[in-house]
Design goal:
Number of strands: 22
Radius of gyration: 38 Å
Number of helices: 30
Strand content: 5-15%
Number of domains: 4
Largest sheet: 12 strands, mixed
Helix content: 40-55%
């Protein structure tokens, strides 16, 4: 009997069935798309983090010491032969434990020596010291390089420790820097015998210079100018690599300190998953210092060791993710709650529209379980295919993510969509009763049971909020209590507003009764007697407003943090700087660039030495007036121009110390008494700190001295930087005007640099999408609540028209009736958003999501209330509510029943 019932009901109300299917499909799609989009952004962010890190950090370097000198020469040579190393390489890869997966195409192995000094006179010697070479016999050279001159090296015949000559290739960078040509011979010293002759047979171009094959050991493709370790003042010399054929590795046995074997394990980027970060760190730890290393030693050498910084890269990514996850959890919980409320409202609306039908069925003996079962089958026939369609669309549009979270989310939507109508109908028809025409508090007052339930929910929500307030929201915390903060505050506000809002309206109704006309008093009276079933729509509305306010404040705070960090780095809207004094006409050329409003020249001596000269402090020489104006404009340490007034003679004839603005650390170190400072040009000045500021536009660091450059020597006073202010600066034109000899920084470009992770941009987009979806569902909740009251309001208008109310008055009545509730809801939404932000702000540090790995400002940016984010959503909802009410009033006035009841009315 259920199947004919379902078929008949769907045929009888196709529009309602289509509306339910559309709602369930859209909600299931959004619910399934959110975790899949989050997975994609997180996985992309992890891959980008590993990819952006240098391969010598992300590659697991496994290396064994030189063969034991006590072994027989043949055994030592055999340990370096390609076949032996290849077998060990396969066993090393086999020890890598999932989820860490090695990329065989980017991993390699080989033999290399320590740097060896060579005395060939044709190699460059920048400071007279001989160059050093590293002999490397690495597997896979032919697959990762293309010869540009000559040919790849070969190993002719059986190579042993006694071999006197081998072939090698060099990279194009090594050939260009060390002046190596095809046919050149390098004499490499050997222990206990004559030098090994290394003949260059080819010059190769790396196919992927920044890939793991080459960049795990950058020396392979680019020579380095090095100094003696621990002595920065030592003379420098060149160090490069000679690439031997793998079969020539046994010839390296006789090199000083012996050769060592190595195996490079590069991670497969396509197999990295954000959800596996902790397991990835465990796999790396096992390979570097755990059971995996023991297996590697068993397969290679008892003294094999391993190192990598991949775990640090993973930890940095996890730190970024932990700062973003709580924000997304708040958005997901808030929007999910609003969507669930809309599904419940849709079921409640369907139950109300079919109340007479269901009441008749109950009166004719239909059991409550049987009735609920039929309604469940009816909604399931619509909701299940719709949810499957939404889930399928999410999977197809967002491939490459986990299926289980999406299936669970779509399943939850399906359960709510199917159960809303049966549960609402079962609750309304527990007892057979006659239908009533009105639902306001004059007819159906809240029962004691409902009052107890509401008080219980209110107490529980208030207790959770108080617990959250007392405990705090620790950074990185993503527990359910933090995520549900907007919902908890919304529950409290909704319950209180539903119960308390009639009180001020009734108070206003008394003086309104003295006004001329009946529209205003009647509207206030009806608004004060509004239905007590408005809790769910109000909860959806307040939760959406709180989530939108919180998200808007987060996004505004992120933008402000990035803008402030860019300002701290640049010091103005743009910066032109050089290590030497700027050309004389540069300021004039820059001033003519479109968008430049003001140019402030400054001279910066970064290596100025105060007092004993052991510590350098940047000294910024400025013209007090323009620089003080710039400081005030940017907000970076503003000060009165007279602070730096020069009271003595200029230059070397100065008799009074120069007044200076200093950072707190410099003031603490040198005090307020005058002290000498030696500048980079050798001149000396005496300064006295008269004012302390945290920041200054001239330098980005935390230590500085700002003085009047009129008191500096002619050389020291020459500008080395130009600080530019202006809107919409043309970066390309500014770069052309500045020339190639100076550096140019644009504040806007610096701001964009902080967004360097797909996880950051993904979080921005996901939160924006969640807030937009929540706003859409909130408007839908408003529409459903109005549709629920449409029959009752239409009947009211029909009755009032028979009593002489005009069509215009009836429309004003419906609009004015909705106005007090809309205003109160908008005000409550603003208050709810403010309370949510105040509740969560102590634990929300925006530094991670805003700046990622960029240098953090001295004061970390925290979440603060954004006035626009608080007011715009509430005003939008108020406008939407009034627009919907106006539309409903206009449509109700056009109903034919009104014209029939008002026979003879010409309007």
């Amino acid at each position: 009997m259920v199947t004919p019932w379902v078929r008949t009901r769907l045929r009888a109300a196709p529009a309602a069935a289509c509306a339910l299917a559309l709602l369930v499909a859209a909600t299931a799609f959004l619910a399934a798309a959110f975790p899949r989009a989050l997975d994609r952004y997180e996985d992309h962010g992890l891959r980008r983090a590993v990819e952006r890190a240098h391969p010598d950090r992300t590659t697991v370097q496994v290396y064994a010491p030189p063969p034991d000198p006590g072994q027989a020469p043949a055994a030592r040579e055999d340990s370096l032969r390609p076949a032996v190393l290849a077998g060990q390489y396969r066993r090393v890869l086999a020890t890598v434990r999932r989820p860490l997966v090695a990329d065989p195409d980017r991993s390699t192995y080989g033999v290399r020596t320590v740097p060896l000094a060579v005395s060939d006179p044709w190699l460059p010697r920048p400071s007279g010291l001989p160059a050093e070479v590293v002999l490397v016999a690495q597997q896979g050279l032919a697959a990762h390089a293309e010869p540009t001159a000559g040919r790849l090296p070969r190993a002719s015949g059986p190579v042993t420790a006694a071999t006197g000559e081998v072939e090698a290739a060099v990279s194009t960078g090594t050939a260009r820097t060390l002046h190596v040509t095809v046919g050149a011979v390098v004499h490499v010293p050997m222990a206990g015998r004559g030098p090994l002759l290394v003949r260059v047979t080819g010059i190769v171009a790396p196919d992927e210079p920044d890939g793991p094959y080459w960049d795990s050991q950058p020396l392979l493709h680019t020579p380095a100018l090095v100094r003696q370790p621990g002595n920065p003042d030592a003379d420098s010399h060149w160090r490069g690599a000679l690439l031997l054929a793998p079969g020539a590795a046994p010839a390296l046995v006789g090199t000083p300190n012996g050769p060592y074997r190595y195996w490079q394990v590069a991670p497969d980027l396509d197999r990295l998953r954000s959800r596996d970060v902790e397991a990835l760190k465990s796999s790396v730890a096992s390979l570097v210092s755990g059971p995996g290393l023991r297996r590697v030693r068993a397969a290679t050498d008892p003294f094999t060791d391993a190192r990598t910084d991949l775990d640090e890269v993973l930890t940095g990514y996890a730190r970024l993710r932990s700062g973003i996850t709580p924000l997304l959890a708040v958005a997901a919980t808030g929007t999910g709650t609003v969507a669930a409320v809309v599904l419940l409202l849709a079921g409640g609306l369907a139950a109300d529209r079919r109340r007479a039908e269901l009441t008749l069925l109950r009166a004719r003996g239909a059991s409550l379980p049987g009735l609920a079962g039929r309604l469940l089958a009816e909604t399931a026939a619509v909701a299940l295919p719709a949810a499957a369609l939404g889930l399928t669309a999410a999977v197809l549009l967002l491939p490459g993510a986990r299926a289980l979270p999406a299936v669970l989310a779509a399943g939850a939507v399906t359960v709510v969509g199917c159960a809303a109508l049966p549960l609402r109908a079962a609750a309304a028809h527990r007892v057979a009763r006659l239908p009533v025409a009105r639902e306001d508090v004059t007819v159906r007052r809240p029962s004691r049971r409902r009052t107890v339930v509401e008080l219980t929910v209110l107490v529980v929500a208030a207790g959770a909020v108080e617990t959250l307030r007392r405990r705090g929201t620790a950074q990185g915390s993503s527990d359910q209590l933090v995520s549900a903060a907007p919902v908890l505050v919304g529950v409290i506000a909704a319950l209180l507003l539903v119960r308390l809002h009639p009180l001020p309206l009734r108070a206003l109704a008394r003086p309104a009764a003295r006004l001329r006309g009946v529209v205003a008093p009647l509207a206030l009276a009806r608004a004060a007697r509004s239905s007590t079933s408005a809790t769910l729509p109000l909860l959806a509305l307040l939760t959406a407003l709180a989530t939108a306010a919180f998200g808007g404040s987060v996004l505004a705070g992120v933008q402000a943090a990035r803008d402030h960090a860019a300002l701290l780095t640049v010091g103005a809207d743009a910066r032109v700087e050089s290590t030497a004094p700027l050309p004389a006409g540069l300021a004039a050329r820059v001033r003519d660039v479109p968008g430049v409003r003001a140019v402030t020249p400054v001279s910066i001596a970064y290596q100025a030495k105060p007092t004993d000269g052991r510590q350098s402090v940047p000294v910024v020489g400025v013209r007090p007036g323009p620089y003080a104006e710039l400081s005030a404009t940017t907000g970076l340490g503003p000060f009165p121009p007279g602070t730096l007034s020069d009271h003595g003679a200029a230059g070397s004839s100065r008799t009074l110390p120069l007044p200076a603005v200093a950072s707190p650390s410099v003031r603490e170190t040198y005090g307020a008494a005058p002290f000498p400072v030696r500048l980079e040009d050798g001149s000396d000045i005496t300064v006295r700190i008269v004012l302390v500021r945290e920041r200054t536009p001239g330098v980005a660091g935390g230590d500085f001295l700002v003085v009047d450059r009129a008191g500096l020597s002619t050389t020291a006073a020459r500008p080395t930087a130009l600080l530019l202010t202006g809107a919409d600066l043309d970066g390309a034109a500014l770069t052309r005007a500045a020339g190639d000899t100076v550096g140019v920084q644009i504040r806007a470009a610096e701001r964009h640099r902080y967004v360097d992770s797909p996880l950051q941009t993904g979080a921005d987009r996901l939160y924006t999408a969640a807030v937009a979806a929540g706003a859409g569902y909130a408007l839908l909740a408003l529409l459903l609540s109005l549709l629920r009251t449409t029959p009752e309001r239409t009947a009211l208008l029909a009755r009032l028209r028979t009593m002489g109310l005009t069509r215009a008055q009836s429309r004003r009545l419906l609009v004015l009736e909705s106005l007090p509730q809309a205003v109160l809801a908008a005000a409550a939404g603003t208050l709810t958003g403010w309370a949510t932000i105040r509740l969560l702000s102590p634990g929300i540090d925006l530094t991670t999501i805003a700046l990622a790995d960029a240098p953090s400002p001295l004061t970390p940016p925290h979440l603060t209330t954004d006035p626009l984010s608080l007011t715009i959503p509430s005003l939008t909802v108020l406008t939407a509510a009034l627009a919907l009410s106006t539309t409903q009033a206009w449509w109700a006035g056009r109903r034919s029943a009104v014209r029939e009841l008002r026979a003879g009315d010409a309007r």
